[in-house]
């Protein structure tokens, strides 16, 4: 049985697809996806020896060597252009996910769906999708074992640019005179802010707490640069607090 996080990712694959799971580690997702019929073929990509061995073991034990190809390599280097129609990258920081996507952009030819689960830096992933012709079709946030995860699904679309402009269009924060700016939506999620759940509130309460701690420590400094930083963080924290108060 998959974790709720991996199950959500599997559920978002196009039915019967060929996909690559980059940074697959134990290859749980590819094995599950081919066995459930969600995918007909999967590549499990790994750059590190330990996880690569774990993936090979898992695939061999499941008897899925024909449908799951375990390959060693950096990011999207493990696939050929046109080989898969979906890519999943889960359990890494947003900056690493973005660097993998950028470095392998020619390998995304023919890929119609991305399912990405950054552990941190979700806004970096949204920014990359926005700038590279991918429309963010779904955002999921869930809590599992005390951790909060966001799963971002994107589709390639010729009208991605118009669709994204609409998605990130400035809109009122209900009950406030202020608006959700594009920047705020990139941070808090253009879709998640429309239907915030408990996990989303928990995430932003914790982000505010972290910010307020930084503000407190910066406030002790007499340096000009620290003062400026304090003001930026203070404004951001206040923006988050207002959004939470209005959406609650
Ligand atoms: N995707 C699995 C999941 O979500 O449960 C495993 C996540 S694990 C925390 C991250 C994995 O990504 C590690 O096994 C690591 O070796 C792999 N990794 C990190 N950078 C990578 C890269 N550039 N290319 C391929 N794999 C990478």
Protein model, in words:
Helix 1 packs across helix 2 (28-36) and helix 4 packs parallel to helix 5 (122-131). This protein folds into two domains: 4-166, Vaccinia Virus protein VP39 (Rossmann fold, 3-Layer(aba) Sandwich); 171-247, no CATH class. The strands form two sheets. It has a seven-stranded mixed β-sheet with strand order 3-2-1-4-5-7-6, sandwiched between helices. The protein has a two-stranded antiparallel ribbon with strand order 8-9. It has 248 residues and is of the alpha/beta class. The protein has nine helices and nine strands. The two termini are 34 Å apart. The structure holds S-adenosylmethionine. S-adenosylmethionine binds at residues 22-25, 45-48, 51, 74-75, 90-92, 96, 100.
Radius of gyration: 20 Å
- Give the tally of structural domains: 2
CATH architecture of the largest domain: 3-Layer(aba) Sandwich
Strand content: 15-25%
* Poorly predicted tracts of residues: none
Structural class designation: alpha/beta
Helical segment count: 9
Distance from N terminus to C terminus (CA atoms, Å) equals 34 Å
The small molecules bound here are: S-adenosylmethionine
Could you outline the blueprint of secondary structure elements for this entry?
Elements: H1 4-11, E1 17-22, H2 28-36, E2 39-46, H3 49-62, E3 68-72, E4 86-92, H4 94-103, E5 113-118, H5 122-131, E6 134-144, E7 147-156, H6 160-167, E8 171-172, E9 179-180, H7 182-188, H8 198-219, H9 224-247
Parallel strand pairs: 1-2, 1-4, 2-3, 4-5
Antiparallel strand pairs: 5-7, 6-7, 8-9
The protein binds S-adenosylmethionine (SAM).
The site of S-adenosylmethionine has 16 residues, from strand 2, strand 4 and helix 4.
């Amino acid at each position: 049985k998959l974790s709720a996080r991996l199950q959500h990712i599997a559920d978002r694959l196009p039915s019967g697809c060929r996909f690559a799971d980059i940074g697959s580690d134990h290859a749980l997702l590819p094995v599950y996806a081919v066995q459930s019929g969600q995918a007909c073929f999967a590549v499990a990509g790994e750059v590190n020896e330990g996880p690569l061995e774990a993936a090979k073991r898992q695939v061999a034990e499941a008897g899925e060597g024909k449908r799951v190809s375990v390959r060693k390599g950096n990011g999207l280097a493990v696939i050929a252009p046109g080989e898969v129609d979906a890519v999943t990258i889960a359990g890494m920081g947003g900056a690493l996910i973005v660097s993998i996507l950028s470095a392998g952009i020619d390998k995304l030819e023919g890929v119609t769906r991305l399912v990405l689960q950054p552990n941190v830096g979700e806004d970096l992933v949204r920014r990359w999708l926005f700038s590279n012709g991918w429309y963010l079709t779904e955002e999921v946030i869930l809590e599992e074992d005390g951790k909060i995860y966001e799963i971002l699904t994107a589709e390639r679309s010729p009208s991605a640019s118009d669709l994204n402009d609409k998605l990130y269009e400035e809109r009122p924060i209900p009950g406030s005179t202020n608006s959700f700016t594009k920047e705020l939506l990139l941070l808090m999620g253009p879709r998640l802010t429309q239907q915030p759940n408990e996990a989303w509130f928990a995430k932003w309460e914790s982000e505010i707490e972290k910010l307020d701690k930084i503000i407190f420590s910066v406030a002790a400094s007499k340096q000009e640069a620290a003062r400026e930083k304090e003001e930026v963080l203070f404004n951001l924290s206040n923006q988050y607090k207002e959004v939470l108060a209005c959406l609650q």
